[in-house]
Design goal:
Mean pLDDT: 95
Number of domains: 1
Low-confidence stretches: none
Radius of gyration: 16 Å
Structural class: alpha+beta
Oligomer: single chain
Distance between the termini: 33 Å
CATH architecture: Alpha-Beta Complex
CATH superfamily: Cyclic phosphodiesterase
CATH topology: Cyclic Phosphodiesterase, Chain: A
Number of strands: 8
Length: about 180
């Protein structure tokens, strides 16, 4: 029987940064009841959620390994806070040429090799690390934004791998890390 699952592709920071971002998400939850962002670990999406046959996960991972085998690491810079309207608060990821080229390559790979539909977000890439979204009440939005601005931090890390996340029991799980140059 064919079982379709949801997946997405992301760059995931080192554990120390994941913990800092998680702490911000917990404070937002505790102060404002905003918890939807806790359903996924800190990440920078490079391919939005897509449906894929679970029985072909191994093939998906093999194709990603093949695509990334010659990929070199590149720097990721976190700096500042931004928002999409009054529905999303995020940490800004600087849109470097390396990151832009990486995302463009993933977009083409997904279209050609995985036969995935190109989404609007694939064409209009805006790298970020979400800390609050979906369940922010309009009355609290300014306060949430102010809190994140107070807690935000600037840092840099090296993107060393691509992570395949999988939706399991309503949560996004770091399912498989695919190392660059492996």
């Amino acid at each position: 029987m064919k079982v379709i699952q949801k997946y997405f592709l992301a760059l995931v920071p080192p554990e120390s940064i994941i913990e800092k971002v998680q702490d911000i998400k917990f404070l937002i939850r505790d102060q404002f009841g905003v918890k939807y962002a806790l359903k996924s670990p800190a990440h920078i999406t490079v391919k939005m959620p897509f449906n894929y046959n679970e029985a072909k996960e191994g093939l998906l991972i093999d194709k990603l390994n093949e695509y990334l085998k010659d990929r070199k690491s590149f720097p990721i810079q976190v700096s500042g806070v931004g928002n999409f309207g009054k529905r999303v608060v995020y940490l800004i990821i600087l849109k470097t040429s390396e990151l832009e080229n990486f995302q463009e390559g993933i977009k083409q790979f997904c279209k050609r090799k995985l036969h995935l539909v190109e989404e609007l977000s694939d064409r209009n890439y805006h790298p970020h690390m979400t800390v609050a979204f979906k369940d922010i009440k309009p009355i609290h939005f300014s306060e949430v934004l102010l809190l994140v601005e107070k807690l935000s931090f600037a840092t840099e890390f090296s993107a060393l791998d691509l992570v395949l996340l999988k939706r399991i029991n309503g949560e996004w799980v770091l399912f498989r890390k695919i190392k660059f140059g492996a």
